[in-house]
Fold this protein.
Amino acid sequence: RVGGSIGVTVVPDAGRNADDIMRYADVALYEAKMGGRGQWRLYSPSMDGGRNARDILKNELREVLAKGAASSAGPPSDPIATKPDFGSLEVYYQTVHRAEGGYAASGAEALVRWRHSQRGLLTPASFIPVAEEGGLIDALGFWVLREACRAACKWPDDTFVAVNVSPAQLRRPNFAEEVFAVLEESGLPPSRLELELTESSLIEDNSDVYSVLKSLRSRGVQISLDDFGTGFSCLSHLMRFDIDRIKIDRSFVSLLGTKANGAAIIGAIVALSRNLGISTTAEGVETEYQRDFLAALGCTDLQGYFFSKPVPLRELGCFREAESAAGLLTTASGAVA
């Protein structure tokens, strides 16, 4: 099935110049897409302000990504040339914890932030849609992947790093090869990388997406399905795409202790996952009651503010403590030997 979104502008109210008319129609089309697709929007002048702001943010993000790529390539060839400074991208990490054995950290999810020079610290919701609209999502996604893999190399061997992947990235036929190149460059074993997909990534049931995921899994990369149960859930996706982990959405976790159907839904997801041999991570854990209840239900991992907020790499103390303990143990063993 092919759907469509429509942007409408009225002549001559929107202008008598063909370029202006097309631009206004394009602005209305963007609003239709942002409203959920499959609908139409009539242009109004109030739409233009938001469009201009998005265009500015898009151009600034393009400069930030270009600066990051240039710094990775080495010192600038022309040190005199200067460009406006719009800040820099950073990767924050939120730990994931095992639901047994003392709730030790099993891994962490990488979450991008933009420390803008004028706007302050921006969360993904502020600029990811702009990156997708401007064709910058591939560059942004691979920057995060590379940074996350480099960081995870220094973590304990039994931990993983989870990185979000957009539908646009998955549709690239050479996406798997690019991931393997990043893994080889960083030295991170494929089994310690977990790529998080949204259900919308799989809804088209695209053969290219299937081939990409099959190639990734053949080399040991783990695949998880984010926000399970909130989108176009299709149980056949769990089988067809060989999903390794289901992430239970925070909206279900928040119902625990307030509505009986919250526990029923989570219990059903956990039971289904256990029968299929799929791990489960419950997101949005904020209280001790939720932690204990989810562990009792059989979730394999837990994630949320109760354990840790997303923090910069330098503040990710739990893995550094584990590394220090491992180093002390090795030293002690050597002394005894």
